[in-house]
Amino acid sequence: MSDNQPDPVLAGYRASIDNIDAALIHILAERFRITKAVGAYKAEKALPASDPGREDRQIVRLRKLAEDAQLDPEFSEKFLRFIIQEVIRHHEQAAGAQ
User: Fold this and answer.
1) pLDDT tens track for 66-78
2) Domain membership flag for residue 42
């Protein structure tokens, strides 16, 4: 394989990764659309922005899913906690707008 010709195997892997990345972005966008509605509802009902009990249950549930999928549960927890923090931030903003 010369430097001028791309490796077709590597190109195929990369195309699959690109498709998965696009799907992840769309899934995250849909998740945040739903959590935005939750934030608006919580603000309307004067509910707290965070629900530590639910968050803990979600962490346990998704760590188990990660293990079953052979994904590092530590990574999945860090990823989920990042998302949860962002959702809480949005909910706090929604509560401030009320």
Assistant:
1) 999 999 999 999 9
2) yes
